[in-house]
Amino acid sequence: MAISKRSKPSKQQREPVVEKEILVDARTDVKRVALLENGRLMEIYYDDPKHARLVGNIYKGIVSDVLSGISAGFVNVGEDENLFLPTKELSAGFLKDKNLRRADNIPIGKVLKAGQQLIIQVKREGIGEKNPQGTTRISLAGRYWVFLPQDERLGVSRRIEEFKESRRLKEIGRELKRDGEGLIARTAAQSASQEDLERDFKFLLGTWKGILDKASKATAPKLIYQGQGVVKSIARDRLMRDVTKVIVDSKKAFDELIEFLKYLHMEEYVKHVELYKGKKPLFEVRGVEEEIRLSMEPKIYLPGGGSIIIAEMEALTAIDVNTGSDTRHRNQELAILNTNLEAAVEIPRQLRLRKISGIIVVDFIDMKEIANEDKLVECIKFELKKDRVPSDFIDITALGLIEITRKREGESLQDMLSEDNEDED
């Protein structure tokens, strides 16, 4: 599809009213959390003891190997695989202890030695042949802040766009943090009171002190901090004023969630939490199971009769948009535009649901009118902004393909469910 890069976008779209719900399936060892918007599944999260996530865990580790050729080391943390630690993941505080400043050209041998002990956090899960990646740039997430105990940085979530609010949060963060520390205000911090912001910071500071105390007594390699499970972390990160309900199908999980919300001083959200008492499984009743099943299919049908086909490959994900058979007796250009716009809404949803990351290339149906092409580009950019995971409209290739990138955050849903099926065989 050839799209003019010189064309001007039309007026900005307005956000429609969206009813958000969180469903929690906690009746088995595998905990699942579904995020719904207007009754449709948008995201699904798993907490499986057999495939425990390492991201966020903090360890006292031992450097097992130093590779000067790639300026990186490997750290034994007591898990199945060692953590890969590149120079760029060494914190300012870590380098300061060695009288060094941050620089990409620091010889790794000056910083890491085999047998050296350090505090390290898992930044990225291992994928395929790649080991999990570690970092000494520790980050601890609270309700309102991300605390960086060893990196002097001050920031605000990209979703907080109002300048005055951004400035207010930076000023509060500057007052709270000490030299050598960093704070990033999360989306939930918007309009939060100073009292709540200070309380959250003190909670994170106390957590960090506890980690240091445990590390000082631990014999490496040793896990010294494990993040919240999926139910609690989703409640902490995603429970906002626009969420109308949180429905939990287990009395135990319900009670634990209520207690956790009170612990975080999120009492105002307790009234939104409901205990599901139906006989049929919650996910089945709400259509979540069917949506998960469909997410494993390559072909998705659009409301107007068109379809999209998703092919996940190792190097990239290719998405092809196809028109329906009912365009022959109508205004073909308008029919194609409608199909493309439906696809532009559905594709970002599928990226979120299937946890697709990396490079995504989309082949929309060719259109003749530049104004229609502009509407399509504007629409997909608008939908991508709804994604909590950073995703960007990159460019239009010489062949007229739209290129998107999405940050990798763990396994894709396809890989995750494929592993589960292999375990059952």
Q: Which helices and strands appear, and what pairs or packs with what?
A:
Layout: E1 20-25, E2 31-37, E3 40-47, E4 58-67, E5 72-76, E6 83-86, H1 92-96, H2 108-111, E7 117-124, E8 133-135, E9 140-141, E10 145-148, E11 154-156, H3 163-176, E12 182-185, H4 194-217, E13 222-225, H5 230-238, E14 243-248, H6 251-263, E15 273-275, H7 282-285, H8 288-294, E16 299-301, E17 307-312, E18 317-322, H9 332-354, E19 358-363, H10 370-384, E20 391-396, E21 402-406, H11 413-424
Parallel strand pairs: 1-14, 11-12, 14-15, 18-19
Antiparallel strand pairs: 1-2, 2-3, 4-5, 4-7, 4-13, 5-6, 7-8, 9-10, 10-12, 16-17, 17-18, 19-21, 20-21
Helix pairs in contact: 5-6, 9-10
Task: Explain briefly what this protein structure is.
With 425 residues, this protein is of the alpha+beta class.
Q: Report Rg.
A: 24 Å
Instruction: Give me the secondary-structure category.
Output: alpha+beta
Strand tally, please?
Answer: 21
Amino-to-carboxy terminus distance: 43 Å
What is the CATH architecture annotation of the largest domain? Beta Barrel
The CATH homologous superfamily of the largest domain is named Nucleic acid-binding proteins
* Structural domain tally: 3
Low-confidence stretches: 4-12, 421-425
